[in-house]
Every structure is written in C-alpha cells, then in structure tokens.
Prior knowledge:
The protein is mainly alpha-helical and 153 residues long. The protein contains 8 helices and 5 strands; from the N terminus they run αβββαααααββαα.
Amino acid sequence: MMHLSGAGLELLKQSEGFRSRTYLDVAGNPTIGFGHRLVHPEYFADGISEAQGEAMLQDDVRVAERAVERLVHVPLSQGQFDALVDFVFNLGEGQLAASTLLKDLNEGQYHAAGGQLLRWDHAGGEEVASLKARRESEFRLWSSGGPEQQAAA
C-alpha cells in the first residue's frame, strides 16, 4: 500500500492550516485542527493542541489513503497518489468515487484525469481562491511524473 509522502503532507497541512478551536469550513462543516471534520459526538470545548491535531490528521490521512487504494485500479506515481489523497481528504471519498476524474483515471487516461482536478475549485456555486490554489498544487504533484510518461517512453 502506498502512503502520503512528505511533500503531500506539506501540501495538505499548508492548505488546511491548523486551528485549535472549532470553526466552520468553506462548506459549513464544523472542523478543528488540520481540517478534521467533527462527527457527533466529537466536541472540543477547550480546543485542542497541535499534537492532538497531528494525531487526528494522521488518522484522517490513513482513511483517505485507503479510499484511494480502494477506488483506483491503475498504477500511480507518488505525486499522483499524493494529489488524490489530498483531494479525498478535502472533498471526501464519495466525491472521488462519483467523479469523471476517477472514471478517466481507471480507463488509463492519466492526462485527462489530471485535468479534472482543476475543475474542483468551487463551493456553493462560486470559485474559491483557496480551492483553486489547492487544486493547482495537486495538479503540480500529479504532473511530477507517472506511469503515463513511462508508458510513452
């Protein structure tokens, strides 16, 4: 099984930022730490430490890694895997499962799949600058080399 690399983790942490107190994310979900979505009965009246946030992040990353492994049926480069883990962490497994991105990818259309990443920069029908930047960062990871370049050689 593949694991999120240091570069992937840095993208995720930079995109999410750390917040010790509960806040509402761009989609209105109660969130804490490094983008950990709170699920009832989770509640942190006194906030959390950065170490607690790191532990939550590791658990959430493992969930995203398993989702990517389960859904993707073609070989991935580390950069492609990292981009998809960040995508799933941010948007959820269901969004990837139902996406044209995954359909294209599993058909071996790596270039088309990478381009699909850039389409996921809206929330509430509006383009969101932070999501646009995140998708562009994922695309850079995606494009850092992968099986489609090896097959073309």
